[in-house]
Design goal:
6-stranded antiparallel β-barrel, SH3 type barrels, Elongation Factor Tu (Ef-tu), domain 3, 160 residues, 3 helices, 12 strands
């Protein structure tokens, strides 16, 4: 099973077994759906209900209806089966993207050293070419992303 990290259970909420998950996963809409399976400690749990409360993703799980039944899940990491994620062609996980090769339009090769968020909507790639370059992910500098070859083609602006 190929699993991807979603977040961490940080607390319970109420007395009916609702769990509070902190997550910055970009494709929550594909994960937090009723009847989807979350993986916690290599065991699958089916989502019975989901809602957003403040900055948290709140879930209840099938067969767990009481706070005392879910206390053993506190502080556990939550994963999702990558095969069930069903990403579109233009969607890619950071864990996959970090392994991609980088090619500039003038033929130089490089690697992605780090991916970080400069703001909630601005993902930055730290690319090592002959020098270090920071490239916004949603910019015209990224010419093409080839999932088959695991390559990113970029166009470096003169002076960078």
């Amino acid at each position: 099973m190929n699993k991807v990290y979603i977040g961490k259970i940080v607390n319970t909420h109420g007395i009916k077994g609702e769990l509070r998950i902190i997550s910055d996963f970009p494709y929550k809409d594909k994960v937090f759906n009723i009847n989807n399976k979350l993986i916690i400690d290599d065991k699958e749990y089916i989502i019975k209900s989901y809602r957003v409360h403040k900055n948290y993703d709140m879930v209840t799980l099938d067969d767990y209806n009481d706070i005392n039944q879910v206390l053993f899940l506190l502080k556990k990491k939550v994963y999702f089966d990558k095969d069930d994620l069903k990403l579109n062609d233009n969607e890619i996980l950071d864990d996959d993207l970090i392994r991609y090769k980088v090619i500039t339009k003038d033929g130089k090769y490089g690697t992605i050293k780090e991916i970080f968020m400069a703001s909630p909507d601005n993902k930055i790639l730290r690319i090592e070419l002959d020098k270090e370059v920071l490239v916004p992910f949603n910019s015209p500098m990224i010419v093409k992303i080839d999932k088959e070859k695991e390559e990113i083609t970029i166009d470096i602006i003169s002076g960078m």
